[in-house]
Amino acid sequence: MTENDTRGRLAPPTGPGAEPGHTDGTGTRSNLTTARSSTRLRGTDGPRALRATGAVDALALVVMLGAAVVGLGPAWGSTAYLLPALGGLVLGLGVAWLGAWRRWGTVTVTAAAMVAYLVLGGPFALPGTTVAGVLPTLETFRGLLLGAITGWKEIVTSVPPLQSFPELAVVPFLLLFLTALVAGTLAWRVRAGQWALVPVVVAFVGVVLLGTLVPAFPLAQGLVLVVVGLLWGSWRATEARLGERQVLTAASVVATRRLRWHRARGGAAMLALGAVAAVVLVPVVTPDTERMVLREQIVPPLDLHEYVSPLASFRKYAKEMTDDELFTVDGLPAGARVRLATLDTYNGVVYDVSSGAGSGVFTRAGDQIATVAKGTPTDLTVTIGDYRGVWLPDVGALAGVRYTGERGEALSTTTYYNSETGTGVVTAGLRPGDTFRLDAIVAPTPSVEDLESSHILDAELPRPRNVPDSVGGKAAQFMAEETDPLVQLKNLEVGLEASGIFSSGLETQLPSRPGHSAERIDTLLAADEMIGDDEQFAVALALMAQSAGIPARVVMGFYPDPEAWEAGTPFVATGADVHAWVEVPFAGYGWVPIDAIPEEDNKIEPEPKSDQVPKPPVLEDPEPPEEPADAEAGTVDDEEKKDDAESSAFDWGRAALVAVAVTVPLLVLALPLLLVLLLKSRRRKRRRSADRPVDRISGGWREVLDAATDLGAPVPAGATRREGAGTLAEAFPVAAAPTVTLARSADATVFGTGDPSPQQVDAFWSEVDSVLVGMRSTRPRGQRFRAAVSLRSLRGARPAWVPSWVPALRRSARSSARTVTRPPTGSGPKPGES
To answer: Residue 590 burial (CB < 10 Å; 0-12/13-18/19+)?
Structure first.
């Protein structure tokens, strides 16, 4: 049967009575319809991102990743996180869609993602740093680059709600941007698209780890992930198994659609039953345990050992700064106390703030701080006077701190708070003129009757070290035979007040040594007349209480004299208002302040001086040197001079940090490009230094072919050198003559007698370099750069660790697969045809 006969047999009837859709009795019309239907179905094989199935993929990813985004709500405390998170989701899917549509390589997609992150990240994540909320600035680029590196640490070391820290919006934006980019790329460019569920699960886990112990909607989120994920994943798996390209007829299309519809209905019904069972059974069978989040596992890198305990400067305030106005508090409630620091660890030298897990966890604080404290919300304004230091004067339990003035931003970014102890630290240091507002929850102080009707709670505190033996002996003496902790604490308090004499070492008071080391406390308790001030008696009471098993900690702060201060007026704290007291936990009231301050004239008074009867001189042991006047917490000598010098000097540390933040991401992005250049350089070196001179000549020609492949003009496989030279001459007219000459020279050398000399090899490679320069000169600069980092010429290369028989086996398998073909339905000869 000839070609003309075939054409005539397949031609539609044109005679009288011929109608579309009918046949001439031989089935030829039916065959034509089937062939056209098959061609139309196979012709829809474009990029998946442009087809309806790609839209289904996008919808599934948006639903699942959107459910993951909801988990950030409790940590943020508002809906402010939705803009950066959803913006990152849409932007990531957009870059993935462009890459799938344009069939970009990995390097191009990575570069496009980096550009999109820097250019469009500002409007979504850092709108406050942009111009008109759109155009990025240098501050925008700096925030995006630093946030990509340090934001992950800061988000788990900051006190929720995180809406107080706008710069942390980079983290949800980047998390959703990366997961959406990877998920979209896998869904639209990989045959087994169900692998896109892996980055979706990563997004869910990341949101949980970056969140709080309080979940958002865990049951709803889990159901969305399971139901949508399983439905979409099973659909993609079925699609990959059946194969889109194997649908050849209209009848098979209908059958395939019916099969998919039945599977979808069956899967949806099963998942619906599973969802109902989950809603009913999960609350019953799930144990009531806390989930793991990073902010509860990671201790923030705040080293409190850099700062001197404020209690070491107690005598300096009481004796040398008696009339100095340290700070002013507006709005202080009656009976409230201003806390400077809570001290809960003793090492025999100083009572200090613990650093580490538990009560030593300090996290960044902002204008909103999550708290469960009960009391009266109170707004206070604090204005710093002569006070200098890193310890933040606060009242009650903080619900937020807002700074004003020129140093507001520097102070707000360096404020840390410990909600367990109510202690705040400002690492930038407070100075005269600084002003801030406190949102505090102030609980009323319980009365003695209230405490008697309550009981002391257990609390975990660091165990004191190097405690003198006199502490336990004196505590046993004061407590007598009592076993009730509440009565024991009361006896300790009364015993110290009755046996002590108050003195801060002023001229009108008895001599009193400063400090609270183990030697000083031992001397205090061993004396018949215990002389000291709040510093010594508070430490002694805390150590004695802990020796009896009663949890106690020391607090240093300020509170006004009720006889000299009127409630409702500003409290001007001076050195005379400094105090130290003990806190003990009570059921229903939390940590309650306990004072043990004896009267100044409790036992004896200083004898009056007499000029007529002089007293004989008494040789006493020299007093240890007091704390120097400038030994204040968080300050150093000549701080003002140091500040002036620092303000005028260039901050090399910050410059280095910015340089690292900019350089590291660029190096990470450039690493694949550098790796490609290294592989090509090694390939060229291996060809140039082959063992056989003939192989060096062949390697030079291969270098030309690989360069042409990278430039987009590959030579067909199996072509001879002269045929390849003809192809290259058409693609690169400028280098036509040198290329033909180079091919002839290679043939003459390879197929000639004898090996070429080293001089001939060097001359041949010089011609190779000349041809390469000519070929590259015909392409624009951008194409030359893409060719330099292209992987086309490397894909066919065999790595050194792969045996030579592996590529041959692959080629054999491919050729065998190509020989097994399936003729289209209706295209073969029918019975009776020749």
So the answer is: middle
- CA atoms of 27 and 690, how far apart (whole Å): 65
Angle formed at CA 397 by CA 394 and CA 400, multiple of 5 degrees: 75
The string of pLDDT tens digits covering residues 599-626 is 877 654 444 444 443 444 444 444 555 5
**Dist CA 701 CA 742 (whole Å):** 8
List, as one string, the DSSP characters of 404-465.
ESTTHHHHHTTEEEETTTTEEEEEEEE-TT-EEEEEEEEPPPPPHHHHHTS-BPP---PPP-
Q: Give dist(CA 525, CA 536) in Å, integer.
A: 10
**Angle of CA points 250, 252, 258, to nearest 5°:** 110
pLDDT band for position 249 (cuts 50, 70, 90): low
**DSSP states along 481-495:** T---HHHHHHHHHHH
For residues 734 and 238, give the distance between their C-alpha atoms in angstroms, rounded to a whole number. 52
Contact at 8 Å (CB) between 807 and 798? Answer: yes
Longest Cα separation, the chain: 155
C-alpha 666/C-alpha 673 separation (Å) is 11
DSSP-derived secondary structure letter, 135? B
Q: Which of 268, 284, 172, 269 is nearest to 219 (CA)?
A: 284
Coil, strand, or helix at residue 466?
A: coil
- CA angle, 777 as apex, 776 and 781 as ends, to 5°? 80
Task: Please name which of 397, 342, 522, 551 lies closest in space to residue 462, comparing C-alpha atoms.
Answer: 551
Q: Which residues pair with 426 in a beta bridge?
A: 415
Residue with tokens 């840390």: 416
Location of structure tokens 């590196």: 149
- Per-residue pLDDT for 256 more than 70? no
Say if residues 271 and 227 touch (Cβ distance below 8 Å): yes
Report how many helices (DSSP H) and strands (DSSP E) the chain contains, helices first: 27, 18
* Nearest-angstrom CA–CA distance, 124 and 134: 9
Q: Which of 62, 61, 63 is nearest to 193 (CA)?
A: 61
Phi, psi values for residue 374, rounded to 5°: -110, 140
- Burial zone of 351 (CB within 10 Å; 0-12 exposed, 13-18 middle, 19+ buried): buried
Q: Return phi, psi of residue 522, to 5°.
A: -65, -40
With 60 as the cut, is the pLDDT of residue 19 above it? no
Residue 319 is given by DSSP the state I
Euclidean distance between CA atoms 542 and 489, whole angstroms: 10
Amino acid, res. 330: D
Residue appearing with tokens 């159901």: 223
- Residues 758-772: what's their mean pLDDT? 89
- C-alpha 249/C-alpha 531 separation (Å) is 104
pLDDT tens, position by position, 677-730: 888 898 999 998 998 888 888 899 899 999 888 888 888 887 888 888 888 888
Round to whole Å and give the CA distance between 701 and 765.
9
- Residue 372's Cβ-side half-sphere holds a number of Cα atoms within 13 Å equal to 4
**Contact 580/600 with Cβ under 8 angstroms?**
no
Q: What is the Cα Rg of the chain in Å?
A: 41
Q: By C-alpha distance, which of 730, 717, 697 is closest to 807?
A: 717
Tokens read off for 779: 């392409």
Integer angstrom CA distances of residue 607 from 282, 509, 604, 614: 79, 11, 9, 12
**Angstrom distance (rounded) from CA 357 to CA 362:** 9
Q: In angstroms, how far is CA 672 from the centroid of its own chain?
A: 24
Contact 336, 387 (CB under 8 A): no
Report the chain's mean pLDDT, rounded to a whole number: 79
Separation CA 719–CA 462 (nearest Å) = 81
Report the distance separating Cα 711 and Cα 430, nearest Å. Answer: 63
Tell me which residue of 632, 537, 546, 575 sits closest to 309, measured CA to CA: 632
Single out the residue of 236, 350, 326 nearest to residue 571, CA to CA. Answer: 326
